[in-house]
Amino acid sequence: MPINILITLALLLLTALVLSRIFTLPRNIWLLFISQPLVMSASSIIVFIGGILSSKMASDPSLATLPLTLMILGVAAGSIPAAMLAKNKGRKFAVYTGLSFSLTAAIIAIFAAKLAVFELFCFASLLIGVGGSFGQQLRFAAIESSLKSDDVPKILSILMLSGVFAAFLGPEVAVVGKDLLNSPFGYAGSFLLLAVLTICSMVIMSAFKNPTINEDETVGEARPLSEIVKQPIFLIAIGTATIGFALMSYLMTATPISMHNMQGHSLNETKWVIQSHIAAMYLPSLFTPWLIKYIKLKGLMFIGTLVYGVVAFIALSGHEVMHYWWALVLLGIGWNFLFLTGTSLLPQSYHASERHKVQATNDFVLFGFQAAASLLAGWVLFNAGWHWVVITSIPFILVLCAVIALYHKHQKSILLKSAETN
């Protein structure tokens, strides 16, 4: 119902107001907090209905996950241009460029759904991804807007918390708009509502001011990228975030199709699972600052990896709604811990003058692997079934264990060097 969308938007504004009274942070952070869920709704809509709609439009059902894959490829392809544009023209200009891509994509998706043209829908999904690549840069805009480096994990947690609202907005917009406009398989109206949310985001971001970077921190010759990527801390940061993101995408992509198309669960049950999953991706950010204070980032990384192992066990246990629900909720929590860890560690690998190229490289690798994972999910699901989707994820959980060991070794070496210096 439309009332659900209005309630979600009202709660978003209320939450931003309450948090701004609790935490003394720059205004940019709260603008990003409000704007980000509107931008992120595009990806949650594609996650929820992309496969369902595509399975009806595509000539080959195994291509049902192609739009989602193309969306993620768009994020990967746009990550480097987005970072370079932010460097040369400023964060605000880059944000509006991304929102323009998202608005164009929503309009194209309306026509794709009305004409039932799968190829056009794929193109729209690709553009949504390109727009999303600029949206992913918002977390770096938030980091640069922080007044103290110690505030970075807290700011990232607050910004990630806003994703809870995207968890409900996207699927609700998809369902409410399903029959808003006449189309052969529905959902044209969903993208009309998405266009409205994008315009609202444009209005909000008009108050955003480009972060100012201390010039003293940017002087000096920037190191070549080949030198930066060899650092253990860079490999740990990018490995944690990339594997965590790719595994999440791999299982999440297959879930709506497995539930609705293969197991016959209702659209509302499927929506509930996806909404719960996306909410679980961001809701832990309420308490992750407290967790980091007591167990540090290494502890957060360990718990996230352990949770992924539990996800695999539950997902292999059955095909009932609750099996999917528990697996996807825990998957979201594990992703939150791993992504927050990787993003928080990344700034330790670069100087201020190197930030744009390192951030671009990080996002290119992260979303490139995520795109490959989402495409592979559709192929494995249609050719081998849900259980094999889960089984093939287990080796990557073991790789995460190796990353934890590398982080432990890296921290130990830092302590030894510090002791020798003193």
Task: Give an overview in words.
This protein is an all-alpha fold and 422 residues long. 81% of the residues lie in helices and 0% in strands. It has 18 helices and no strands. It has helices at 2-22, 27-57, 66-89, 91-115, 118-136, 138-145, 152-161, 163-176, 188-204, 215-218, 225-228, 232-262, 267-282, 288-315, 321-345, 355-384, 386-391, 394-421. Helix 2 crosses helix 7, helix 2 runs parallel beside helix 8 (163-176) and helix 3 (66-89) packs parallel to helix 5. It is globular and about 70 Å long. The N and C termini lie far apart (64 Å). The model is unreliable at 215-219 (pLDDT under 50).
Question: Major sheet, described briefly?
Answer: none
User: What would you call the shape?
Assistant: globular
> Can you give the helix content as a percent range?
over 70%
Low-pLDDT runs of 5+ residues are 215-219
Range of strand content: under 5%
Instruction: Please state the CA-atom Rg, rounded to the nearest Å.
Output: 21 Å
Task: Figure out the total of helices.
Answer: 18
N- and C-termini, Cα separation: 64 Å
Number of strands: 0
Chain-averaged pLDDT: 87
Order of helices and strands: HHHHHHHHHHHHHHHHHH
Helix/strand structural class: mainly alpha
